[in-house]
Amino acid sequence: MFGISRTPLGLARLAATSTPRSVLLSQMRGMASRTLFIGNLSWTVRTDDLAALFSPFGEIKSIRVMTDRETGRSRGFGFVEMEEEESRKAEKELDGTDFRGRELRVNEAEQRPPRQTSFGSRPDRSGASEEF
């Protein structure tokens, strides 16, 4: 990933870091955002339904309902990204509430650990020694 650093002239420059892209873009815009995990969703819930539920709390920057690749049906959870203050209010007011017959679980999304690539995860089998 890339991070924001400043040049001597004060211009924003991207530099290598592990900070998520959404956080970096928010920093560039001057506002902090926060992603919420929304769990225990009904399988019938779609993105528009979550947008209608969260929009009274403020501007939604991104929204995703995770779906099964094969069936296209909701997997029962999703993510909503909002400005930090607005997301905290939404989390406080919506966690534990009933939505379409299910008690919602709303909390801050955890950072997903980096994935192993197939290129870097295998040991060197060339037989060459790393010592010189």
Q: Which keywords apply here?
A:
132 residues; alpha+beta; 4-stranded antiparallel β-sheet; 3 helices
Topology:
Blueprint: E1 2-6, E2 12-16, H1 21-29, E3 33-39, H2 47-54, E4 60-67, E5 74-83, H3 84-94, E6 98-99, E7 102-103, E8 105-108
Walk me through the structure.
- The longest helix is centred in the C-terminal third of the chain and has 11 residues, at 84-94.
- It is built from three helices and eight strands; from the N terminus they run ββαβαββαβββ.
- It has helices at 21-29, 47-54, 84-94; strands at residues 2-6, 12-16, 33-39, 60-67, 74-83, 98-99, 102-103, 105-108.
- The model is unreliable at 9-14 (pLDDT under 50).
- The two termini are 33 Å apart.
- It has 132 residues and is α+β, with helices and mostly antiparallel strands.
- Helices cover 21% and strands 33% of the residues.
* Poorly predicted tracts of residues: 9-14
Strand order of the largest sheet: 4-5-3-8
Q: Could you tell me how far the N terminus lies from the C terminus, measured between alpha carbons in angstroms?
A: 33 Å
Number of strands: 8
Helix content range of the residues, please?
A: 10-25%
Tally of individual helices: 3
Estimate the global geometry from the Cα principal axes: globular
- What's the gyration radius in Å? 20 Å
Main beta sheet: strand number and arrangement? 4 strands, antiparallel
Q: Percent of residues in beta strands?
A: 25-35%
Helix vs. strand class: alpha+beta
Helix and strand element order: EEHEHEEHEEE
Mean pLDDT: 80
